[in-house]
Write a structure and sequence with these properties.
158 residues; Thiol Ester Dehydrase, Chain A; 2 helices
């Protein structure tokens, strides 16, 4: 029998997510991040609640989470793990969303759903990352996209 190396994956609760990202309510789309494997992959979690402000107009009689906010949750998850992975370099960083490719929405997300944003790094060159991202609810794919972002030093901390 061979020894199998077990990798300990990291996680970030809401307080840690707030340290990693500049986003705040009502635009923070990630409540927790689990299964963090460096900047290679992670799963962000969003608990969708009926009292979120976008549901007042999208749509009052049948609330549906806007697709752009699902994509934003994917991007925030990817951005947070990039910042976390570079954290020991000493310079606080900001992540700027660059592209969305091959985006598809498969099923509506509604209040009461728990969205899992699974992001996996496709490539990284210098300060630019590209990720494959899939959003699921109860194991069913609700959205997918390839997203890229750029990591830059935070000018407010210089």
């Amino acid at each position: 029998m061979t020894d199998v190396e077990t990798k300990e994956l990291k996680s970030a609760d809401i307080m840690r997510v707030l340290e990693l990202l500049p986003h705040r309510y009502p635009f923070l789309m990630v409540d927790r991040i689990i299964d963090i494997d460096g900047d290679r992959s992670a799963t962000g979690i969003k608990n969708v609640t009926a009292n979120e402000p976008h549901f007042q107009g999208h749509f009052p009689s049948q609330p549906v989470m806007p697709g752009v906010l699902i994509i934003e949750g994917m991007a925030q998850t990817a951005g947070a793990i990039c910042v976390l992975d570079r954290e020991d370099m000493g310079t606080p960083s900001l992540v700027y969303f660059m592209t969305i490719d091959r985006c598809k929405f498969r099923k509506p997300v509604v209040p009461g759903d728990v969205v899992h944003y699974r992001v996996e790094k496709l490539k990284n060159r210098s300060n630019i990352w590209k990720f494959d991202a899939v959003a699921t609810v109860d194991g069913v794919k609700v959205a997918e996209a390839e997203i890229s972002a750029m990591l830059l030093a935070d000018p407010s901390n210089g």
